[in-house]
Amino acid sequence: MASRNMYFKLLSIFFIFSKFYHLQIFEVAGFNSSVGCIEAERKALLKFKEGLIDPFGRLSSWVGKDCCNWAGVVRDNKTGNVLPQSLPFVNFTSLQALDLSQNRLSSSIPQWLFNVSNLEQLKLDMCNLTGPIPKVLWGNLCKLRILDISSNSFEGEITDFVEALSGCTNRSVETLDLSSNKLTGNLPDSLWLLRNLISLKLSYNKFKGRLSDSLGSLRNLEELDLSHNTLSGPLPKSMGNLSRLEVLDLTFNMKSGTITESIGQLTRLSRLGLYENSLKGVITEIHLPNLTNLYDLSLSSESKSLAFSLRKDWIPPFNLLYIAISDCQLGPAFPAWLRTQNMIVQITLSSVGISDTIPDWLWRSS
Fold it and tell me: In the structure, what pLDDT confidence band is assigned to residue 1 with cuts at 50, 70 and 90?
């Protein structure tokens, strides 16, 4: 028994069938019973076999041309291109990294995949996966550091899934990318317990509700992309606690209220995206004093409910490459502080109440 366990501890499988290979894995739907599996499929399975140590011959039947008759390979005439729903012939206890990104799997995620206890990296982005995110048994996925299931068609809420991750004592997740799906509901409070998060991407979904003030507890966060949802309410003041934050993207939401002055404390912030929201109030120098690394700024409001009130001699601490301000009160004079921005690549100042001539220095700004 000890020998057997030793062999399986050596098992480390890396599925890396990326855009460089375009391999179709377990694509067995619609086959005529008299026809064997396609050649690309057979080669993919053999490549998978090469990464295994199989001292007990569990895969001894994996020879010959007709891979549909191999042990553990099941033809499915209903669901299309699928991940196998069970793999009883393989011990996955040592699996640490699984990358199946950019394949045409066209299925839901099988339950077994989210219950691999030693998994640290799971990448299933751009796989045409559907359905809800599977439930995770408590205590599993507690070593997970990187999860990317972006650009699929997952549906439903994420509360149960996030609660399972946050229930781990180590809360090891550093990268969580659920962007470009069809996920719904409020962002669960348990999300803010994942305090090792470095990158959180939830853009292009249907999330709603307010951002909790507990957001400020993610002090390791460097990237926060919540754009293209229907999030509402004000920006939490606790954002000022995110001292490592470099990217804040809340564009195309329904955020309202004033912009918290604590944003000015984010010294590492390089991109600030608040475009297409319903913000209001007044922006002064107090909002911007420490944004020395900012190069991309986008803001907008409705009916000029957001106004700028900056001294004429104010010199920004940043040097922007991109600036987009729309439906805000920036004028009537052309903003003199733009003269200091000598790295500008793109300027959008639409419907900002300017009643002035275009200054000559603008044409020399680049």
Answer: very low
Q: What b-and-e string marks burial along 276-298, b requiring 16 or more CB atoms within 10 Å of the CB?
A: bbbbbeebbeebbeebeebbbbb
Using CA atoms, how far residue 192 sits from 119, 126, 187, 201, in Å, is 22, 26, 9, 13
| C-beta of residue 169 within 8 angstroms of C-beta of residue 194 | no
Cα(193)–Cα(246) distance, integer angstroms: 20
**With 50 as the cut, is the pLDDT of residue 57 above it?**
yes
Q: Are 35 and 120 in contact (CB under 8 A)?
A: no
Number of residues in the chain: 366
Sign (positive or negative) of CA dihedral 354, 357, 358, 359: negative
Interior angle at CA 290, CA 284 and CA 291, nearest 5: 85
In this structure, is the dihedral angle defined by the CA atoms of residues 224, 227, 231 and 236, taken in order, positive or negative?
positive
pLDDT in tens, 182-238: 999 999 999 999 999 999 999 999 999 999 999 999 999 999 999 999 999 999 999
Residue range 307-334, pLDDT digits in tens: 999 998 999 999 999 999 999 999 899 9
What sign has the CA pseudo-torsion 55, 60, 63, 66?
negative
Beta bridge partners of 223: 199, 247
Identify the CA nearest to 86 among candidates 49, 116, 121: 116
Cα separation of 108 and 154, whole Å? 8
